[in-house]
Amino acid sequence: MSIIAYWSSNYLVDWLKYLIPGILCPIVSNALGASMLTNGNKYNALWELFMFYGLAIIPTTYLMAYIFKEHTKAQTATFFINFGVGFIGSLAISIL
Predict the structure, then answer these.
(1) How far are the Cα atoms of 24, 70, 77, 78 from residue 50, in angstroms, in the given order?
(2) Which residues have C-beta within 8 Å of that of residue 64, sequence separation ≥ 6?
(3) pTM of the predicted model, to two decimals?
(4) Are the beta carbons of 54 and 22 closer than 8 angstroms?
């Protein structure tokens, strides 16, 4: 198996697994009436955000795996980096 076929198939499978929550989250936001996320063009932006986030985070996670020698350390570091940037970063932006 070629290296391109290996990584392409992994990316495709990970993207398909991501599509389940990536599609459900905007639909649930709309169903629950989250007007801050769904009014006007915000709903289109929400869809774009979820779709592009999946496209960006999957290769980032793959690249993070090459920094570490043990997969457990790579997974832990990736989790905390994503948590820090995603949760703490958005919290800091909303406070400012």
Answers:
(1) 10, 30, 22, 19
(2) 74, 77, 78, 81
(3) 0.72
(4) yes
